[in-house]
């Protein structure tokens, strides 16, 4: 005889065993492109309704752009506070240009004066350097004069050397002050002795005791002289 009770028990056990087993996850491939063939997939019964392409916005025309820029500029200018004296001055641009021109002329004049001053200072510095050298050589020239007066430089190599030295110093503007018979000038002469002279109307240099020197208009040393005064 069939045992129905046992069959029912087995079926219920199988169901319990299936219920105790974990369910496997279901993976659905929704990719639109087949990774193996590279072709688009079109499942049966699926209707592809592509989304409508949004209407492209009309490109801004140059006129509209200029209008926006002008509006923005006008808004900015309206927000700027302008002084009353500048807002009402119609010729402010001309006045500003004239002021800039005057500033430019003033700067140019200052530059010209500065350049002249630098050139003048450079010339004075060079002149002072030459004068310093000439002053240092005046004692040597005195020794040459003394030797010449004693007859030691009548001839020979030393006489030639003395002549060359005096000639070289003349090229630098050195001038000897040793003239006699001229009117006494206190700016270039130093009177050591005065003696009466006949037939004279002014004080006259009768003898030079030590020569003087000058360079250009500058007197390096006054000549020491004997002055003859009118009787």
Mean pLDDT reading? 75
Helicity, as a percent range = 40-55%
Enumerate how many helices there are, as a single number: 5
Radius of gyration over all CA atoms, rounded: 59 Å
Q: CATH superfamily of the domain at 175-231, called what?
A: Head domain of nucleotide exchange factor GrpE
**Residue ranges: pLDDT <50 for 5 or more in a row?**
1-10, 45-67, 86-90
The percentage of residues in β strands lies in 15-25%
Q: Which H/E pattern describes the elements?
A: HHHHHEEEEEE
Order of strands, main sheet, comes to 1-4-5
CATH class of the domain at 175-231: Mainly Beta
**Alpha-carbon distance between the termini?**
195 Å
| CATH fold-level assignment of the domain at 175-231 | Nucleotide Exchange Factor Grpe, Chain A, domain 2
Overall 3D geometry? elongated
Q: What is the tally of beta strands?
A: 6
- Sheet/helix structural class: alpha+beta
Q: Assign the CATH architecture of the domain at 175-231.
A: Roll
Sheet having the most strands: 3 strands, antiparallel
Please render the helix and strand layout as text.
Layout: H1 4-20, H2 62-79, H3 84-88, H4 92-149, H5 157-171, E1 174-177, E2 189-197, E3 204-210, E4 212-215, E5 218-221, E6 223-230
Parallel strand pairs: 2-6
Antiparallel strand pairs: 1-4, 3-6, 4-5
Helix pairs in contact: 4-5
